[in-house]
Amino acid sequence: MTDPIDPVELTQALVRRASVTPADDGAIPLLAERLEAAGFVVHRCDRNGIANLFAKAGTGGPVFGFNGHTDVVPPGEPADWTHPPFGAEIAEGRIWGRGAVDMKSGVAAFAAAAAAYRAEGGAGTVALLITGDEEGESVDGTPAILDWMRANGESLAHCLVGEPTCPERLGDMIKIGRRGSMTVKFTATGRQGHTAYPHRAANPLHPLMRLLDRLASRDLDRGTAHFDPSTLQITTVDVGNPASNVIPERARATVNIRFNDAHTSKSLALMLLQEAAAASAGTGVTIETEFRVSGESFITEPGRLSDIISDAAEAETGLRPALSTTGGTSDARYVKAMCPVAEFGLVGQTMHQVDESAPVEEIRALARIYRGVLDRYFAA
Fold first, then answer.
1. Is 71 a catalytic residue?
2. Is the pTM of the predicted complex or chain greater than 0.70?
């Protein structure tokens, strides 16, 4: 029997859609057409101009889900690429183009695996959650699909996110959790004045620098069972003062915190507010804070889901994946509110780079691994 979907051909077709976030350029409609032809019931879950797709095939429980995205980061200057960034050319055994790794190949691989599994009469129900808003604001993508699912009585028992997770070789790493991420903007406001008469001014830089030094010198924690120590990085300090003899009225700084499960964004926010108050006390300077939380930390404890993915990966590659929580954020941070979730995909070395590319045979191997996950999951 010929498989309903060829993962390599579908990867090429998706890469040729210039779906630079938040644009879709026909990527979601293309998937809807292919999945409908493979027997899936397809629903669009668009929100605020973002294209989203929910597709399901099978009857009865449990429902196993795959999640992924079709939007990509900008390619930069096309002339810098060896092959056109949206050409999806195959050369040297690789597909070249933006999204070839992150993560149109992952979407194509799990679509192919799910379609083949259903075509051969596999038991249970498989659902695909595919968004066009992961590389951007990420508020009208997977969250919109999950909202639609709840409103329409849909649910998942477990989910696999097809992000590229392997650092060196296909099969060497599964992500079973992610650190939280929050960005904090400090605005210190004092009183402008002449540097020769500091008693007539209130320099906002002095308490702001004390605050930043205290934060940069602080050990947030020493790591937890599944996470490395949390980190805080100062990313900007901005004054905009062209005069060396003027004490500025205002200064700004930004920090980014990647935090483990020893913290929540609320506990960190409270600590930062206390530190800001202590640094500015008695100075005549106020320090205001603005918080943006991209996601809380989470962990899916090692168990059935990670075992099934590990078994399928090892059967295909001969490698037993390490269980990791490293890296940035992903849409798994939203899915975890509905069900246990893990991530597994290609080697991510070229994602977001000029000349992003993925080996053709590894895309096919990834589809076989995802098929192995389905076989093991519904046989258990």
1. yes
2. yes
